[in-house]
Amino acid sequence: MDEPRKATRPEDRPGVPPGLWTRCDKCEHMVYEKEVVEKLHVCPECGHHRRVDARTRIEQICDPGTFEEFDKDLRSTDPLNFTDRIPYIERLQREQEKTGETEAVITGRGFIRGRATILGVMNPNFIMASMGAVVGEKITRAIERAIEENLPLVIVTASGGARMQEGMVSLVQMAKTSAALARLDDAGGLYVVVATDPTTAGVAASFASLGDVILAEPKAMIGFAGPRVIANTINAELPEGFQTAEFMLEHGFIDRIVPRADLRREIARIIDYCGK
Amino acid sequence: MNDGSTTASAVSPARGTSASSAINNGNGFGAYLEFEKPLQRIQIDIEEMERDQNETGRDHSQDIAQQRSRWKATLKRLYSNLTPWETVLVARHAKRPLSVDYVKGAFRDFCELHGDRTFMDDHAISGGFARIGSHRVIVIGHNKGKDIKERMSCNFGCAHPEGYRKALRLMRLAEKYSLPVVCMIDTQGAYPGIGAEERGIAYAIAVNLMEMSRLKTPIVSIVIGEGGSGGALGIGVADRVAMLQHAFYSVISPEGCAAILWKTAEQRKHAAEALRLTSKDLQQLNVIDDIIPEPVGGAHRDPEAAAANLEKYIVSTLDELKRTKVDALVARRQKRLRTIGGFFEDPGDIVRASEKKRPRQTTHRVSRLAERFGSRESSKIIGTGATR
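Predict the joint structure of the above. Result:
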């Protein structure tokens, strides 16, 4: 009797804090975990959009059972042979064990409300979805698939930026992905970005900013330089709401802010307008 | 890569420079970097002997000549094998030639064009028409500024979105009139400020990356000093990417990297090593194509020779690039970008890699630079990349 129930309890699921009731990070209300999950990991009290891992996101966005993953065996070669306090290879292994994923992005083909799309979803739980050679390659291959199969491309972005442990090899992934997007653009392909918390630095300054249409989740942090670096440089406090989705909307860099519950509908609507 | 480099404390490009009262001893400089201490001691000796000679009339000329040649030999020895951190110090040297110096020294008839047609003229990136060899080009470069007034006006080479938009505007102009584009990179990174974020610094860089990848005219980009992450890459997508020998190019400053990964900026020397940011390393990693040799002791000790090397490189590279039709050139540029960065695809690769340390690297373009320069030093440098 105990056994089957145990498996469905939130505390036994990876990434879910223990207890049926949890405290919202933002409003600090006690919320019923099951209800939060039902609401796509959005707080029922304050509407705070929790970060979700890539698999959960794919479940939320795609029609059930339609997602077919690409290139899941791509792994980093540790091009610099990098070691800080721990070797990068070891850090990667830890992240792989923690998340059950090989890298910080999942790409594939899936249906969104019956519309076939090429999908890329970044995983904020994997070294803050930083972009190294593998992330750059998977994104690039997804773009190329969209060109070959003449399908719309949807990328759900979240990233701390380029992956330091891969040095310049990671920085040039910005150029590599942007160059592939130039080819998609030349081919007339549709590219929709869904910017989620946090979309920053090298990813913000490459493929996350290049969508034909850019959607963002409410209150998601979106920006280039780290807020602490900015505060140190200008030697002043940053204004309230700086580098949020709302700030980006106000300054003209994203098209729409879309609550998570409406994402499927909004993406499908844009695909219908762009005729692919 | 949150551009940790560009903190307020990072504004002086000459960290680690010990302000020596040493007078110019004919070798074109006054201040020594921390690893150049042996040179400073020799110079003090020379100065003392000279003073004594002047005051007492005793003849030290032989000793002085001997010490001078020792000084030169020491300089050569120190610079023949700089550590990554020493390279960072040289690349940030207060006297290191800036893009304005190269525009004067390597180009002719520079005609500056201002403004992004949207918001303002960003002094951190300047550009315009210029001539080099037999070529008419658009030249674009980061500007760090010569003195404190200039440095303030161009934010120490840290550009706002307007700088990147101006650069793109000039590149489009170049495309329209089939002029090649030459970019000189020298920045700590894009400016981390409220205005830069409000006016879309991320978008401005992203658009440049995309448009430069398909610009229908030859592009050459050269890191002449500091290549600071996205702010550098924003004018760094090219048919041919080169670095001056002692320049560095990095995803994050060594200080920023140390602060994040080691939790202390003290580890910047280790970070500089780990990041593999020197020209030699980056050629091996296939991130850059060519290394342009610097005079012994760094570009700042002989700016004219550095400018001459740069000129030679740009002219011969443009001669070569112009021989290819523009569509083929763009296709090749796209292909070059496409193949950067290795990875394991087949799970079996991982097993093989654990047996052999350095796995799959993309093929290397054999440089003809050594031929072009003909010097023993340059062929040695190039050799490290080409013989792999």
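Residues 37-56 of chain B form the longest helix (20 residues).
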